[in-house]
């Protein structure tokens, strides 16, 4: 298993840290490879978080098993608030349905701290594909069932599940091709190797604005200011209109509530830093620091809705 470590910030304030319950460096565990949305966000927030907690903050990638390796590591860590899990909520919502057995119980062994950002998905097509807009894409998909290759960031990921739901809603089928993460899936479409992809705006917007692929539609509550011509899924009457990359932070489930609250406060403040806000906006995302309760509600809602998609289409990872 490949790991990458980054000391994002170090501050000499041990007395302050001990007073707040953090008497050693913190680690942000990202359960996937470097370069994805979670990794980008972890490295962006690590410095400001360290400033507020008076400790070094280290970003560590522990990829594998659909995010289960990193999540399990945090679930079995010391309940002292110093080991954080930063990931897309969909990983925790879908894995109970994709794997016959998990090494941990999400509700019991992981405690929500706060969401950080939401970035909608952009459905984009290869420039060589003979479609210009959503209507043209649907017509082409129906006229050529199974012919369209949809690159996703891995079987069972949200980019896969949303595309499956769209194909069903359009009354046709598409061929789903898993890649080892969102970055190679985007490269496959940019190079013309694949026809379509669904990816978070944090990763895909540069490809669309740069003309390397054609934007078709966007999820989320509104059109993107940088891509105002792209209609939303809701405008088109498509399913999974709220889909996107919902990034959040969790800790070991038995972490004292006071430490969880301290982390929530520090993360909320860190995300308000002007440099962080600007970078988040540039990546096409929105701040969503609503706290532990809102995060827990979102996780439970996604578990119900995405579980239904997985069961309906009999998708599994460990058959």
TrEMBL record:
Gene3D superfamilies: Bordetella uptake gene, domain 1 (3.40.190.150), Periplasmic binding protein-like II (3.40.190.10). It holds the Pfam family TctC. Transmembrane segments: none annotated. InterPro entries: BUG (IPR005064), Bug_dom1 (IPR042100). It comes from the Bacteria. Belongs to the UPF0065 (bug) family. This is Tripartite tricarboxylate transporter substrate-binding protein.
């Amino acid at each position: 298993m490949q790991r990458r470590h980054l000391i994002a910030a170090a501050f000499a304030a041990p007395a302050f840290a001990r007073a707040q319950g953090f008497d050693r460096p913190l680690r942000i565990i990202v359960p996937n490879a470097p370069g994805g949305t979670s990794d980008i966000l972890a490295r962006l927030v690590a410095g400001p978080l360290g400033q507020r907690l008076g400790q070094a903050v280290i970003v560590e990638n522990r990829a594998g098993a659909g995010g289960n390796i990193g999540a399990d590591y945090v679930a079995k860590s010391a309940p002292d608030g110093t080991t954080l899990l930063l990931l897309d909520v969909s990983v925790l919502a879908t894995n109970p349905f994709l794997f016959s057995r998990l090494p941990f119980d999400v509700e019991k062994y992981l405690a929500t701290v706060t969401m950080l950002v939401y970035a909608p998905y952009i459905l984009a097509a290869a420039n060589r594909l003979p479609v210009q807009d959503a209507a043209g894409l649907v017509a082409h998909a129906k006229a050529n069932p199974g012919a369209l290759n949809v690159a996703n960031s891995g079987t069972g990921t949200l980019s896969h599940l949303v595309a499956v739901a769209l194909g069903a809603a359009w009354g046709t089928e598409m061929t789903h091709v898993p890649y080892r993460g969102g970055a190679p899936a985007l490269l496959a479409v940019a190079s013309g190797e694949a026809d379509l992809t669904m990816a978070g705006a944090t990763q895909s917007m540069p490809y669309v604005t740069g003309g390397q692929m054609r934007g078709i539609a966007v999820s989320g509550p509104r059109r993107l200011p940088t891509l105002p011509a792209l209609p939303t899924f809701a405008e088109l009457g498509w399913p999974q209109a709220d889909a996107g990359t919902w990034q959040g932070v969790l800790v070991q489930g038995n972490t004292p509530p006071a430490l969880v609250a301290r982390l929530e406060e520090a993360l909320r403040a860190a995300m308000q830093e002007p440099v962080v806000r600007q970078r988040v906006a540039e990546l096409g995302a929105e701040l969503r620091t609503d706290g532990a309760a809102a995060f827990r509600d979102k996780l439970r809602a996604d578990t119900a809705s995405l579980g239904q998609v997985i069961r309906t289409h009999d998708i599994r990872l460990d058959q």
